[in-house]
Write a structure and sequence with these properties.
This protein is an alpha+beta fold. 40% of the residues lie in helices and 24% in strands.
């Protein structure tokens, strides 16, 4: 039996510049961090040749081609495992539509588990690259590349997407005091709204040409956050998040909604300095940067609006095998 633990993420800036249609012309850049909320993948040998897959439903099939869960199917094809396996996934968050990168986290975690099952160790770069191949090239999902890389590498990262399709991943090093200061000022609330991101992301992808000037500003913001954090300065993060949210709302029609706008404005009036909807938008989690002295007011306002807080910490590690009992 193999069990992997793979972190979810929050993105500070640059989301959207990791789409190939953008970065192949202008280069892309994001700043993201892994958090201590995870997706767990369990892989276990079966006594027969069937494949059993357990997630929100259960599949029992005779061959890989019969698997409905497309990520599981393509990960098995990629790793060359064809029979005699049980696979299960579990998450610390709602299974879909969270905005915390769960689909890519599943893909990276499953690849890691399957390779470990074969007795192979794959580096983070290879896991992220193969996850991108599966999701973007094979399945044609309208997504970027940041989620796969932050799930594989973990930590607080500056990730650059170059026009030749190479990816550069750099750690942003903060001393313990600065890391604590940053983490203490980030608060996350679940809106209770889950959605499939594909529709929003498809519209965003179609709009890349007409929204290129906005995406260039979002890329500049990612570089600004990177420089601020690299110098140990967290004071500008709230303002940059706020401006970034104003940009992001312009990328596609369903990124925000009247309800989300009201929640966001009420948080700012209560003392938050900035924030954003995590991921593609339309629901999922709301992230705020808020000084400690105003957090009780923000929490009360969000709680009165029916939102549930999800406490979290920054996570140093990427995907890893936490249990390995191979025969």
């Amino acid at each position: 039996m193999i069990i992997t633990q793979t972190p979810l993420r929050i993105s500070f800036a640059g989301g959207g510049t990791d789409f190939a249609d953008f970065y192949r012309q202008d280069g892309g850049c994001v700043v993201s961090t892994a958090i201590d909320k995870y997706i767990y993948v369990i892989v276990k040998e079966r006594f027969d040749d069937k494949i059993r897959v357990g997630y929100s439903k259960t599949e029992m099939v005779d061959s890989v081609d019969q698997i409905e869960h497309e990520l599981v199917r393509e990960c098995l094809r990629k790793t060359g495992i064809s029979r005699g396996l049980e696979i299960a996934t579990m998450a610390d968050i709602p299974s879909t539509g969270s905005g915390l990168g769960s689909s890519s986290t599943v893909t990276v975690g499953l690849l890691n588990a399957l390779y470990a099952f074969k007795g192979e160790i794959k580096p983070a770069e290879a896991l992220a690259h193969e996850a991108c191949q599966i999701e973007i090239d094979i399945l044609g999902k309208p997504i970027g590349k940041q989620d796969q890389y932050i799930a594989a590498y973990g930590g607080l990262r500056h990730i650059k997407f170059l026009p030749d399709d190479t990816v550069e991943v750099s750690a942003i090093e903060l001393d313990s005091e600065k890391k604590l200061r940053l983490g203490e000022r980030l608060i996350l609330f679940f809106t209770g709204i889950t959605r499939r991101a594909d529709g929003i992301l498809s519209e965003q992808k179609q709009n890349i040409s007409s929204k290129r000037s906005i995406l260039l500003k979002m890329k500049e913001q990612a570089e600004e956050i990177y420089l601020n954090l690299s110098n140990g300065c967290t004071d500008r993060i709230g303002d940059i998040l706020n401006q970034g949210w104003m940009y992001k709302r312009q990328l596609a029609g369903r990124v925000s909604s009247k309800d989300i706008d009201l929640l966001y404005e009420s948080a700012l009036k209560s003392g938050a300095m900035g924030g954003k909807i995590a991921g593609a938008g339309g629901g999922g989690f709301l992230l705020f940067y808020c000084p400690p002295e105003h957090q009780s007011s923000v929490r009360e306002r969000m709680r009165d609006s029916g939102l549930k807080e999800m406490p979290f910490n920054l996570e140093r590690d990427g995907t890893k095998v936490i249990f390995n009992a191979r025969r």
